[in-house]
Sequence to fold (310 residues):
Amino acid sequence: MKHRPADLLSCKIPLSPAVLSCALSACLVAPAPRAQAANWSLHAQPARLVNGSPVLFQVKSPYRLESLRGSWIGHNFSFRFNAMSKTWYALAGIALETAPGSYPLELTGDKLSTKKTDKNVTFARNFTVGRGEYPKIKVNLSVESKFTEPSPEQRQQIEEGRQIKKDYLNRVTLDPQWAGQFIAPASAEISDVFASQRIFNGKTSSPHLGLDFRAPSGTPVKAMNDGTVLLARPLFFEGNFVVIDHGQGLLTLYLHLSEFKVKEGDQVKRGQVIGLSGGTGRATGPHLHAAVRWQGMYLDPAQLIKLRLP
Ligand SMILES: [Zn+2]
Fold:
């Protein structure tokens, strides 16, 4: 991991030559014995962090810990321990609105110890967030007029959908249910990427907060990883809509389906068919819109699929 001078300035330890090597690899929040500090190891994936990207943090601690929690750009989360690799890991994300800069990952661990005192250990390191290279072109799409000029009855349906999403999508299951790689939800080419700007019927504009697959109606749609079906019902904009809860605040969303193959509360495995693609809701035609949400923010699904996960 390459560090810019700004990263070093945030260190609260003097930059004498003796500690410079420590500062280059890791940055201390509170003074601690130098040997122990050097033993922390923090890694992030992807190699270049950008706004809108999911992040896998991997941590090796010099202490035997009961639990490890992280704080990153205003979000708190817990790590899971892999005994084989003796590594703590957690999935997190960077909001599309996050400005480029250097941000600390702050860690708090509970030591495996019988003593009540000195149980907590803390550590932090700065990571650089760059600007994502997202398409700037604006796409003008034409959809049924009810989506841009809804009637009072349709406004009611829009409001109901908003309430359902507010209620369900912010529920967080702490324990991770995902394991290993996330997979593409359909065998089809990509027709629109994350964060492109769209204009509907020349009126309302919104960034594209998912990944589109050019899937003909009836294409099997697969769960991107293991999880629990949080929602499986029709909504006004989303059409037939499935949401899977993968734990640790991470959800995957599947829109515009023609058919459901799961119901709310079902446990699903990665690759399991959860529905068939279609063109229900605000869609210009049959396709699959897949989205990734972590703690209320939408992240780039293409980046999540690329991460090499334990
Ligand atoms: Zn889409």
Observations:
- Residues 5-130 form a domain with the Immunoglobulin-like fold (CATH 2.60.40.10).
- DSSP finds five helices and 23 strands in the chain.
- The longest strand covers residues 101-111.
- Residues 1-36 have pLDDT under 50 and may be disordered.
